[in-house]
Amino acid sequence: MLNRTRNSHTARPAQPVAAPRRRPGARVVPPTAPGAPRVGGGVHALVRGDDNARLFDYEQRVKAAFDAIVPALRRVSALQHEEDFERQAQAIARERLGFELPAWILADAWVDQLDMRRLYAWCVFETYLRFSDDFFSADPLGWADEGEFQAFLQECGFHILDISPCADGRLAHVIRYVLRLPYRTVRRKSYAGALFDIEDSLEKWGETELLRFREGTPNTADAPTRYLKAVVYHYSSSAPDTEGCAAHGSDAVRAAEAGRERLLAFQQAVENSYCCGASIDLLLIGLDTDTDAIRLHLPSAEGGIEPGAWVDAAQLYDETRGLHARDAGERIDARLREAAPEAPSGMLRLLARLLENNLSQIEYVQRHHGGRYPDIGHAERFIGAGKGFEEVQLRNLTYFAYLDTVEEAAPDLDVGVKIFSRLNVGHGLPIPVVVRFDYHGKVPAARERAVEHCRRVAGALAARYPALAADGLLHTLQLVRDIDHEQGVGGRVEVLDCSVREPAQEAH
Amino acid sequence: MLNRTRNSHTARPAQPVAAPRRRPGARVVPPTAPGAPRVGGGVHALVRGDDNARLFDYEQRVKAAFDAIVPALRRVSALQHEEDFERQAQAIARERLGFELPAWILADAWVDQLDMRRLYAWCVFETYLRFSDDFFSADPLGWADEGEFQAFLQECGFHILDISPCADGRLAHVIRYVLRLPYRTVRRKSYAGALFDIEDSLEKWGETELLRFREGTPNTADAPTRYLKAVVYHYSSSAPDTEGCAAHGSDAVRAAEAGRERLLAFQQAVENSYCCGASIDLLLIGLDTDTDAIRLHLPSAEGGIEPGAWVDAAQLYDETRGLHARDAGERIDARLREAAPEAPSGMLRLLARLLENNLSQIEYVQRHHGGRYPDIGHAERFIGAGKGFEEVQLRNLTYFAYLDTVEEAAPDLDVGVKIFSRLNVGHGLPIPVVVRFDYHGKVPAARERAVEHCRRVAGALAARYPALAADGLLHTLQLVRDIDHEQGVGGRVEVLDCSVREPAQEAH
């Protein structure tokens, strides 16, 4: 076991995310940007204003905590050669960040100068840990009635909704914000370019069927429901040639086509691997990462996807604004029926729900982000590498690299390192990488294997980027989490190790 | 696609393994070694002499093909500066190895000297490919009635036998030779120290149950049969302190205890992960790699394993030799009943079958290998890395490193490289590594992913052992195989690439 000393990431009390006071110069998004369409509260009858307010408060609170780090450290830096530097620095940190800085980093500042790279990485990790702990203990994005959505899904003819968005940080909020779905009920597994792993999905399909057969969860295997696999690709309406999906060369048509192909391949894999009419249903979703408006590609009568036909939520938003709730809902239903007259009625019901949900997010972006995010490009705060990160449901917070090994995920990691070379290294700041492996605590020694996994990946990361690691421009925090521990709420992450450690500890 | 040119591993006709003529000095095992107990054909009534003859012919044929390489190349080497060297060399190769050598390697010999490392690696790969092709086309170890064993297994109360032996090359023949089981019916997955992966086994358990539920294969889920997981650890009766299992420090007690712990952990993982009384049965087997005699640890009444109690096949062989078949069988049954009076009768029936089968192997080693293998230590001919190698059912032919990535399997690979550093590098010969990934051809693009996988692992190998690779002391052959192609027989391996290539090809 690691030493659990004060001012180390291996020892920390549970505390909510600090909401630091705003400072001039800090990146704070104005409620409505100048020139953007101004929309009053709840103008659209189908928009849930209360949900929007709660979601914005959370987004604002978490991002402000991360964005307070640089200004606070700038201030600390300016004081580093003053005599009561340590006292002043801690006062600033407490006030602006809500926590104290590691005394051992501050204590050495007088000898040479403050090791700002270490300090920055430490603050990002500390802020991440507070955010993560808050998520698993206070459940800020929880759902009052998750059973309602599961029941609705089954009424529509599906027993599971398995979504693979692109791993781009600008899609990390797709479940809870963009689609307004309960994140514990929907499966999310992100991949670069939304090009999900077919073998992994086949395995999930098998697991799902077995639970239906053995345990009747979520329904029994004889119920005529299907496995619904969805892909979310993305594009940028403001800067289509540069801010779209990097994995598809910012080409929305290519991104959609690749998603469709992968979905069809998975469907064929299920059909060829299992007998007795095994199959799945498919859903292809496009997301404009500037506005969070979705487009739903329409199902064909044969269970395929019409590549060139979709219903656009932004258009529906404009078309139904000012209507009464009931009329707006009927208009959405009518548009879907016109566009896909042969689609099964259950699928159309689900699509209508997704479109209606997305109207709230369209208004959210209009109201709180000026209709278009100011950060239409990458602005992630850290890289998340490994398996887990259920708590990351916010846009542009995390660059995901879902991985088992650096060896297999090297291309994805290289993209992430390239992004952060511009965002951080170019300004002299290190790349913070959270290495995380979740495990099933009810499986004997699963924790030990997750720990081993974590250490191996952290080592392989340092080996892949030796120059960055040697220059203190790559820092890692190693975590595991027991996902069998009080499903969802309760099981906090466990810190194993951190590359920012006291030199004395390093000697051991 | 690769060029499929003559004299390259990317082009080869299907041919049976050559049976080179014996030469003085080649490693050939005499029918009975001097001083070993001499046993006449079929002295033990339960031994199947015909099976033994067939198995020995096959072992002899394959190993002789590999063992002919060094003497043939020595002879070739001695001639390399003669004027009609190429003609003479090809004549020797055809006669002794059954194939021609790559002309482009021979052609350069006059300039400097013959690149013996490349030539050796090329010959090992060519011999391996002929052996593998022969296996998948001629089915030399096939079973007349595989259904009989599956039916017997179910009568004993089990629907699957899933065996994890140690990955040591001295156990590679455990299914077909030591236990005399049909290799297509029994699952084999080897791990260093027999420490199998619990998550992988859980997945297999789920897959097996799903097939029973959905397809009634091998029986329906309501049949009261169980999943039987077996571990085979090993030890050396001649040199217990040095030639036992390296992963357990050549300590038989530790090896047995570790196997037992892993089995119990898997059982607990199934019980904790699934409801409704899900569980498995366990079997712990020890193997004396000098004599191929097994010991079966006895099941306890509670479904566990008695750590210190076993029945020894070598002892039973001596005890029942000279008895009539029926009496010998009854003696075995009686010994088992005495040793484990509370074990379920189905389990005892299976154990009796395994013991009886092993008597044939004990006599096989006595008759053909002098009662104790002359190569009690490592003497593998190549490293097999990746997933597949169903065709390797022979002792001391292959050091297995079952792996997805070099990153995860580095410790196992390091052991393999250490073994071959002694066997080959110490004599100036390279380490031949066959990198292989099998795939399900019915899953779309699975072949492309296997190809990608193969290339990635071959690259990672070269990166892990840069000095060996640079000195031409590490050579790789990359293969994939479609396991959905005519189950078992028929689907040959496909050669993707080989580190021994014509320089002209390398330039592309």
Give a verbal description of the structure:
The structure is a homodimer of 508-residue chains. In chain A, 43% of the residues lie in helices and 15% in strands. Chain A has 508 residues and is of the alpha/beta class. The first copy, chain A, has 2 domains: 68-140 and 376-506, Carboxysome Shell Carbonic Anhydrase, C-terminal domain (60s Ribosomal Protein L30, Chain: A, 2-Layer Sandwich), CATH 3.30.1330; 146-369, no CATH class. Chain A is globular and about 75 Å long. At the A-B interface, helix 8, helix 9, helix 13 and helix 14 of A face helix 8, helix 9, helix 13 and helix 14 of B.
* Terminal-residue CA separation of chain A: 12 Å
Beta strand % of chain A: 15-25%
Number of strands of chain A: 11
Shape of chain A: globular
**Major sheet details of chain A:** 6 strands, mixed
Oligomer: homodimer
Integer average pLDDT of chain A: 89
Helix percent band of chain A: 40-55%
Radius of gyration of chain A: 23 Å
Q: In which order are the strands of the major sheet of chain A placed?
A: 2-1-3-4-5-6
Instruction: Give the helix/strand class of chain A.
Output: alpha/beta
Q: Quick one: which chains have the greatest interface?
A: A-B, 36 and 36 residues
Low-confidence stretches of chain A: 1-7, 13-41
- Number of domains in the coordinates of chain A? 2
Compute the number of helices of chain A. Answer: 16
Note the run of SSEs of chain A as H and E.
HHHHHHEHEHEHEEEHHHEEHEHHEEH
